[in-house]
Amino acid sequence: MKTRSVLILTLAVAGLPTLPLPAAAYVRTVTEAGAPSAWKTPCPTMEFSLGAPPPEMDAPSYLAAAQAAGVAWSQASMNGIDRCSNVIFTVVPVPDVAGPVGMDYHNRLIFRQDSFYDPYALAITSVFQLKNSGEILDADLEVNAYNFTWGDFAAHPELFQTNTQDFQGTVTHEFGHVIGLDHTCYEPGAAFADGKPIPRPTDNLGNPVPDCSDYDLPAVITGATMYVSVASPAAEVELRSLSPDDAQAACEIYPVTPDFVCLPPSGAYEVAGGGGCSYPAGARRDSIACVLVLLVMATVVRRRR
Ligand SMILES: [Zn+2]
């Protein structure tokens, strides 16, 4: 396995034409009615079930990693402004093993240790939102601790050689889904919860996003925390740090205001699901699911093109 930077270097040496990099490439989740997803006030409190976490790390370490993932978004900076977004993630430990996933105004962060939807998915985030307004009401994040073990790659690079994944990096990516961000590329075949195909999204500049399977995706897309996959342990650690486009997303969707006050979601729950990332059909009928999938083989093929 090689890192993304090796991929870019290979292309440059090969003399392939250099595509102009778009100035920005963040992508918002859009409901089936076309409304971009967003919290009314972006202050999700994530209830982290730490009653019986996977044994590779202790509960305080998992909690610290998840809180750091939240800080990455809460401290998004752009154009020299230290904190340009109203996003405030709060991660609190709760003593249960795994709280329920569903529309209950409780945002969960849980480990799945007995089974998982997809053996290649590191995690799945279900976002519940109002179809017409796009207001996000609830988001639940399930971490695949059935097919993977979890660790801290920054502190323990020796874990690169195992089936372990970087917990903080993955949670940082999933928290991007929690605040309404989609992947920076398109996965044909993605469908809404009712089975209707998700149209190709456009990025913040109005440009249709490229297929995730394209071989010459620019670094601005593949280097984002919201890129669809991780190809190497180093790339997983990179997910912890927002790319400029990730930060721009947080700061433009939720611009910082001096008198900001966190409020609970408004209104009654009306429609579950309605926009977002793909997941194999049948996995979940009542929610949007976003997956972060390891595409090791696909990346190897890409490099050889
Ligand atoms: Zn994802």
What does this structure look like?
With 305 residues, this protein is an alpha/beta fold. It has one domain (4-304): Collagenase (Catalytic Domain) (3-Layer(aba) Sandwich). 22% of the residues lie in helices and 16% in strands. The chain is built from 7 helices and 9 strands; from the N terminus they run αβαββββββααβααβα. The strands form 2 sheets. Strands 2-1-3-5-4-9-8 form a 7-stranded mixed sheet. It has a two-stranded parallel ribbon with strand order 6-7. The site of zinc ion has 7 residues, from α3 and β9. Zinc ion is lined by residues 173, 177, 183, 277, 290-292.
What's the arrangement of secondary structure elements?
Blueprint lengths: L3 H10 L31 E5 L9 H16 L15 E5 L12 E6 L8 E9 L6 E9 L4 E3 L12 E3 H12 L40 H4 L6 E2 L2 H6 L5 H10 L34 E7 L1 H9 L1
Parallel strand pairs: 1-2, 1-3, 3-5, 6-7, 8-9
Antiparallel strand pairs: 4-5, 4-9
Bound molecules: zinc ion.
In short:
With 305 residues, this protein is of the alpha/beta class. The chain has 7 helices and 9 strands; from the N terminus they run αβαββββββααβααβα.
| Structural class computed from helices and strand pairing | alpha/beta
Bound molecules: zinc ion
Number of helices: 7
* Unreliable residue stretches: 1-23, 269-305
CATH homologous superfamily (4th level) name: Collagenase (Catalytic Domain)
Tell how many strands the DSSP assignment holds. 9
Separation of the first and last Cα atoms: 15 Å
Q: Which CATH architecture is right?
A: 3-Layer(aba) Sandwich
> For the CA atoms, what is the radius of gyration?
18 Å
